Amino acid sequence: MISEGTAFTFAVIFGIITVLLVRSRDVRAWEAVCVGLFGLYLGQTPVIYTVHGLVTWLINGFSHT
């Protein structure tokens, strides 16, 4: 089970990335809204556990020395 602190951290990181993409005009505002809505709906499904496992695996892979 994903903890609230971990979920909040990931939400903040991905939110900052989305804001930076919109500011650089690589993503239009309506596309960012669609991405956000997709994330909200995805977060309400059991797929969140698979996504969390993948993100954790990637972070551990990049930070492993």
Q: What's the number of extended β-strand segments?
A: 0
Please report the distance between the alpha carbons of the first and last residues. Answer: 26 Å
What is the count of DSSP helices, taking H or I runs of 4+ residues?
A: 3
Proportion of residues in β-strands: under 5%
Written as H for each helix and E for each strand, in order along the chain, the element string is HHH
Largest sheet: none
Classify the secondary structure makeup into a structural class.
Answer: mainly alpha
Helix content: over 70%
Low-confidence stretches: none
Features:
65 residues, 0% strand, mainly alpha, globular
Short description, anyone?
80% of the residues lie in helices and 0% in strands. It is mainly α and 65 residues long.
Model description:
There is one protein chain. The chain is built from three helices and no strands. It is globular. The protein is mostly helical and 65 residues long. The protein has helices at residues 4-23, 29-43, 47-63. The model has no long low-confidence stretch (mean pLDDT 76). The two termini are 26 Å apart. The longest helix is centred in the N-terminal third of the chain and has 20 residues, at 4-23.
Write the layout of secondary structure elements.
Layout: H1 4-23, H2 29-43, H3 47-63
